[in-house]
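Standup, Tuesday
Yesterday: got the pipeline producing structure tokens again.
Today: sanity-check two examples.
Blockers: none.

Example 1:
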Amino acid sequence: MRFIGITGGIGAGKSEVLQYIRSHYKCVVYLADEVAHLVKAPGTKAYGQLAELLGQEVLGADGEIDRAAMADRIFANPALLEQVNGIIHPAVREFLLEQLARVRESGEAELFFVEAALLIECGYLALVDEMWYIYADEQVRRERLKASRGYSEEKISQIMSKQLTEQRFRESCDFVIDNSGDLAESCRQVDGRLSAFCRKNI
């Protein structure tokens, strides 16, 4: 079973590519953002650590950590953000490695994918069998974000400025998918890469 990381800048179309993979291959897919939500659920180790660090004001009426309240608490506080990431990122990694071991043992999948914009920064190059970079031209990404999320040019520029450069992505990854145009063409690139490891489910 191959453990594959999928990364890329905002608006590159990682979700669309993964949706195709989910539909056509015997695989397990985890989105790191969704896992981050799971690992801070009530009763988890990370939940207790975050509640102690950030205070009871970040807890909602249901006892869960309120995402908006947490964001407000750490906004413009780099030191606190670093502490929060120091809790969440290791918890996400531990969860994913546990699931990887489970899937390998069960034999339920031929491919195990994890997707996140920060995989490289968080040290996943040392864990995955290969890292994929979903690339799209910057102007294409900007148009997608304005159309799908209603983001302003200013907000898009702010987010992009905090992400890795295209050069860094390309240098760090084993395979690049150009998703600037037709999704069908991106899917053909996926099929070409995966044909060496497994068969496509028709």
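Example 2:
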Amino acid sequence: MGKGEMTKRKEKVVKNIRENYQSLEGMISKQLFMGNDLHGPTTGTFREEIWAELFQQILPKKFVIEQSAFIIDSKDGISKEIDLVIMDEMYTPYIFHYGKLKFIPIEAVAAVVECKSESIDPGAITAWGGELKKLHTATESVARLATQITTGPVPTQMSTRPIRILCALDQSIPGNIEAIFDFVLLAASKNKNENFENTYIKVRSNTTFNNLYEWFKDLNFYEYSEKEIDQHIKNTKNNIDKASLESIKLEKYQVLDKDRNPISLMTFNFQLNQLLMLINNPMMFPHRAYAELFCED
């Protein structure tokens, strides 16, 4: 095979992958619209399963997607029911898992997903976000690392929080609601009178953080002050290339088609997985803290 032929082959493969993502957008959004018509806006299980299928397509296999679960912390905190919980179960035990009833420790949770139709109750979403923000990772962990035994969190990850995602049908989302989430995915149709043939997914990301360094701080030093973060970073044995992280914006992961329009789902894939790599493994599990939680006083 000649060099020119090989180049053409590679270009064709790349083109096919791009088109596959656009097809996947259409299939998922079409199912959501049809399901909304057939099942009605109150049937949540159906749409959760469709959105879960999307995340299964793009997430590494180490992540498990749990449907309808509760998140707890070691200080008696408990979330409202979460539609989809994206967790790494390799290192962290379930607190309770029996049938469909699941209680998952906050230390294990990488992302949470709220699935809605065309109806969003601002009060309910605000309460959902408020309960989630009250949950805090604990620091009483004991684990062997490559070079030492640690009795606390690693200096580059003192307190994590889940990446927050809203999935819904296309609509206007109030600013105070959108601010709760890091990503908003909206299934859209260019013409709803065409049996939803021309459908796609809109993706919007949190614009609060200007670069990967700001994302890194918020995801790994949740609710720490700037001074505390600077001190912890200075204490790390491994250098953190702050300047490089500050030079990388999340918008740099955007994939565009030939008309310079974003291929939303492919863009979301790269952006979400980059943020998951900033979190990397979940917090080391604080077994003592949870043991104390369940001791009868």
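Quick observation on example 2: The two ends are 75 Å apart (CA to CA). DSSP finds nine helices and ten strands in the chain.
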